[in-house]
Design brief:
- It is a single chain.
- By secondary structure, the protein is mainly alpha-helical.
- Among the domains are: 73 residues, Endolytic murein transglycosylase (Dna Ligase, domain 1); 190 residues, no CATH class.
- The protein is 41% helix and 9% strand.
- The chain has 16 helices and ten strands.
- The strands form four sheets. It has a three-stranded antiparallel beta sheet with strand order 1-2-3, with helices on one face. Strands 6-5-8 form a three-stranded mixed beta sheet. The protein has a two-stranded antiparallel ribbon with strand order 4-7.
- A hairpin with a 5-residue loop joins strand 5 and strand 6.
- Helix 3 crosses helix 4 and helix 11 packs across helix 15.
- The longest helix has 44 residues.
- The N and C termini lie far apart (106 Å).
- Keywords: Cell membrane, Cell wall biogenesis/degradation, Lyase, Membrane, Transmembrane, Transmembrane helix.
- It catalyses: a peptidoglycan chain = a peptidoglycan chain with N-acetyl-1,6-anhydromuramyl-[peptide] at the reducing end + a peptidoglycan chain with N-acetylglucosamine at the non-reducing end.
- It holds the Pfam family YceG.
Length: 436
């Protein structure tokens, strides 16, 4: 500790010399001899004090430098310890001890540490440190997308990371296209089967946890049974649809339209009820983001009716005509006038074709808009966000009729029935003929 004194206080300089007037240091400083002319004792003391401050600054600088070095060393040791578990390395499983495969979820924005923590919880790796150490050595980790992955358990971290970055490890991933229905349907002319949502979910649920080569799946029938549950609240049905869903004429179809089009990820080890509840509740959020809860002020339809109308728009037209077809629906409902959409006839038949037969159109069902006024009992497919928005804000127009005249999707609109008949005359040969 370096203390200094002026006048009667005694101090020592940085190297231990006394500096009071009786000291040898003081006498030496003030001894006769060469000195600067005209400099007073006070000025010489000021010079001495300046020199001492400089020495103190160098001492403090050295001390601070030592502190920084120690801090950097401490951080380095922390990082080393975090990744390696210390001098002995992180705990890791040995090769050749793999157990049954398990499903690990990668959330949006997950870091390698967070993925590793879930892998530890699922018994995939022995420690987060081992996983992180392996992850930083595999550049493909940056390409891993949010979703669910089937990984072997009780394996070295390097093997776990290698398995994770393999695209084949991803499970529970499904794409639901616009206009897709819950159940399979067939094309009248080609007999080709269009897979329904329940079939797509069943296929995406298949996983092989034992490595036997024979995967286990949630069946189509299991999804259909879960989707027909009497208590729709267990299926994530939103409040704005609950009342209508509770009164649908066919329980198997009560979730129609409530699972939106898009790319989905689900845990294939979950129950079919939980999987459907996830898809329905997240779809409700998608629909609500379009303004479906308040759009009735413009369209005159409640949220569920908006969804039903949007499904008709989706099945009856191409995106460039969505808003016009939506206006036709609203205009006809206001007349009132039957909608008379062939897509609603096809829905009850589980078939697809542009045209329908006279007998089919005359058959009364809760969906056939040739046989009744108003909207169908449920949506007839999963509408796209674009179709929902078209119903929420339809184009301005007085149209009551439209007809698609060719395979390119060219569609003509009019309010006059006579003009509509003339437009039908423009249909390409065979385009509107039924395959039955």
């Amino acid at each position: 500790m370096n203390n200094y004194r002026y006048e009667d206080e005694v101090h020592t300089d940085p190297i231990g010399y006394r500096t009071d007037e009786g000291s040898e240091f003081h006498r030496a400083v003030n001894a006769p001899g060469p000195r600067e002319v005209g400099r007073s004792r006070a000025q010489r003391r000021q010079d001495l004090e300046a020199e001492r401050r400089k020495r103190r600054g160098r001492t403090v600088g050295l001390a601070l430098g030592l502190i920084v070095v120690l801090a950097v060393a401490g951080v380095g040791y922390f990082v080393f310890d975090r990744f390696t578990g210390g001098p002995g390395g992180p705990e890791d499983f040995a090769s050749g001890t793999a157990g049954p495969s398990v499903v690990v979820r990668v959330h949006p924005g997950d870091t390698a540490e967070q993925i590793g923590a879930d892998a530890v919880d699922k018994g995939v790796v022995a420690s987060t440190g081992a996983f992180m150490s392996a992850a930083v050595q595999n550049s493909s980790i940056s390409a891993v997308q949010p979703g669910y992955y089937l990984l072997p358990s009780h394996v070295p971290a390097s093997e776990a990371v290698t398995a994770l970055v393999d695209p084949a490890a991803r499970v529970g991933s499904v794409v639901i296209s616009e206009g897709r229905q819950l159940h399979d349907s067939s094309d009248v002319n080609t007999e080709a089967v269009k897979k329904g949502i329940y079939t797509l979910l069943s296929e995406a649920s298949c996983i092989d946890t034992t490595g036997s080569g024979t995967p286990t799946c949630i069946s189509y029938e299991d999804f259909n049974a879960a989707g027909a549950a009497e208590d729709s609240s267990t299926l994530g049905v939103p409040d704005w649809a609950a009342e209508r869903v509770s009164t649908v004429p066919d329980r198997d179809r009560q979730l129609e339209g409530l699972i939106s089009a898009g790319s989905w990820d689900f845990d294939p080890t979950a129950s079919p009820t939980d999987i459907l509840a996830q898809l329905v509740s997240e779809s409700a959020e998608t629909y609500e983001s379009t303004g479906i809860l308040t759009a009735g002020a413009n369209s005159g339809l409640d949220p569920y009716q908006t969804l039903v109308a949007a499904s008709l728009v989706e099945r009856e037209s191409l995106p460039q005509d969505f808003s016009k077809v939506a206006r036709v629906i609203i205009n006809r409902l206001a007349e009132p006038q039957k909608l008379e959409f062939d897509s609603t006839v096809n829905y009850a038949l589980d078939t697809t074709e542009v045209a329908t037969t006279d007998l089919d159109r005359a058959t009364v069902t809760p969906w056939n808009t040739y046989a009744m006024e108003g909207l169908p009992a449920t949506p007839i497919a999963s509408p796209s966000v674009g179709a929902v928005e078209a119903v929420e804000a339809p184009a301005d127009g007085d149209w009551l009729y439209f007809v698609t005249i060719n395979t390119a999707g060219e569609t003509l609109f009019t309010r006059s029935y006579d003009e509509h008949l003339a437009n039908i005359g423009k249909v390409e040969d065979g385009f509107l003929e039924s395959g039955r």
